[in-house]
Amino acid sequence: MEKYNTTKVLNKGQYSKVKLAEDINTGEEYAIKTIRVPDDDSEYEDGMQVVDLVGDDYDSDDEQDDDDESSDEENAGQSTGLVVLVEENTSKSNYMEHIRTKSEGSEQTVTEEASDPKLNHLMTLINKLKKQQTESLSERIQHEVMALNKIKNIDHPDSQYLIGVKEVIEDSIKQKIYIVFEYAKGGDLLSFIENQNKLSEDVAKRYFVQIVRGLSLLHNSGICHRDLKPENILLYENTIKITDFGFCGMFKKNNPMFNSLCGTENYVAPEVLEQEAEYDGIKSDVWSLGCILFTMASGLFAFDDESHPKLIKSIIDVDYKMPNHFSPLLKDLLSSVLVKDPNQRLSLDDILTHGWVVKE
């Protein structure tokens, strides 16, 4: 790491930190993510039961920073399970700020009682799954490093829609992993939406198509993201960069089936919540993609409620309302993606030929 001069901290997480860095020889800027590898998962045991710890202070005996300046240009703090977002009453003027606050994590388990016995049982199951089935921290670090090494070697035009990885360095002595990323100066998609309040359909379409192409390349490379959301999509000039692979799932032989409970709740598919069987990671990614499109075009969540049980129920029942300003073609696309039955959802190839996408 001697060839990089690090400057400010861009973001911190429970077990990781991202710094802006400059190549001493070329002057080129990068974002370097440092992951502190634990001896075991016991030091994060509480975190595995808490749903998300993005934004919690990173601490290390041998690495402290006086510079506490941070931003969200690389969402470095990986979550430790399902992100439970409990909505509060808020006006539209500060709605996107509230989305960011919530998606940075909430240290609470699901304790709210549901009036529907079936839903109450589901809430109990989700709590149990968070404690017992969520992948261990060491597994997720391993998966992220494997995915990034694979992404680094992808030679395809659509790789421009994935965060560029220059190198991955493992330091067994310091028990740290350093990942050198391209520096996406435009920040994340959520910030962009927040600044615009909402995106026009033309602008949303431009970024949406890029996300679809990047996601398709991931899937064709044997990787499911499993935590797609605007915060995990960066911008560089007019190009999106899918990032944050802490929850990614690797698969082989066209068998993208998983059983771990992960993702961010307002973007997570019903089958992931219900856990009645293994779920198809490709099809659950498509659901998240639909939720992102809804948020881009409206500045709002597709699924949202003050009551957590009601939020869960709205996702499982696919109960959401289209804004009046959505065009008929956009409504048709969303209603073909946000479908309860994963097998009835449009594929990524189908999405790229949908009328809303191809219309000039």
Automatic annotation (TrEMBL):
- Domain Protein kinase, by residue range, is 4-357
Keywords assigned by UniProt, alphabetized = ATP-binding, Nucleotide-binding
GO MF annotations in UniProt: ATP binding; protein serine/threonine kinase activity
Q: Name one GO biological process term.
A: intracellular signal transduction
Which SMART domains does this one have? S_TKc
The record lists the membrane-crossing segments as: none
Under the heading InterPro entries, the entry gives:
Kinase-like_dom_sf, Prot_kinase_dom, Ser/Thr_kinase_AS
| Annotated protein name in UniProt | Protein kinase domain-containing protein
Q: Where is this region: Disordered?
A: 52-81
User: What is the originating organism of this protein?
Assistant: Acrasis kona
The answer on whether this UniProt entry bears the keyword Metal-binding reads no
- Where is this chain compositionally biased, Acidic residues type? 54-75
Example of a GO cellular component annotation carried by this entry: cytoplasm
Gene3D superfamilies linked: Phosphorylase Kinase, domain 1, Transferase(Phosphotransferase) domain 1
